[in-house]
Amino acid sequence: MVIVREIGDRTGEGIALGNMDIAYADLGETRRAIQFFEQRLTLAREIGDRRGEGNVLGNLGTAYLHSGETHRAIQFFEQALLIDREIGDRRGEGNALWNMSLALDQLGERAQAIKHAEQALIIREQIEDPNAAKVREQLAKWREQTET
Which of the pair, 23 or 28, is modelled with greater confidence? Predict the structure, then answer.
């Protein structure tokens, strides 16, 4: 990372930050990961990388969701969703909707969770995402629990 900063390679810096934030997240060091996600977000905005910005907003949402800050997570997922729709990133849009559904369910908003998951499923099926099955299964569980 030091080298890419010294030579002014902003894209390389974003890649390095991306590797570090994901590594810390995978290690369960959520707070440290959030620090790197925030640096990466600032960089993405500075260089006008909308796709990168959308991705890191989604990653921040996931990090906050895992740390129990569900309302904050939803705010990041909503921002990611707006960018994903703006740039036509269907995979990102599906991910943002799915992650929002999980957060909404944690807040006890089952009807809204189902609504978002249904939208995510439509997208995931359209893009032939193998994770569509996971969304379908969760939707079936939520609907079953809602009926009883």
Answer: 28
Of residues 41 and 3, more confidence is placed in 41
Binning pLDDT at 50, 70 and 90, where does residue 4 land? very low
What Å distances lie between residue 84 and 50, 62, 69, 71, 97, CA to CA? 8, 16, 22, 20, 10
Please state, in angstroms and as integers, the Cα–Cα distance from residue 45 to each residue in 21, 55, 98, 111, 148, following that order: 17, 12, 24, 34, 46
Instruction: Assign domain 2-147 one CATH number from 1.10.10.10, 3.30.1850.10, 1.25.40.10, 2.60.120.970.
Output: 1.25.40.10
Structural contact between residues 89 and 129, judged by C-beta atoms closer than 8 angstroms: no
Confirm if 23 and 58 have CB atoms less than 8 A apart.
Answer: no
pLDDT of residue 10: 52
Contacts of 87 (CB under 8 A, 6+ apart): 50, 51, 54
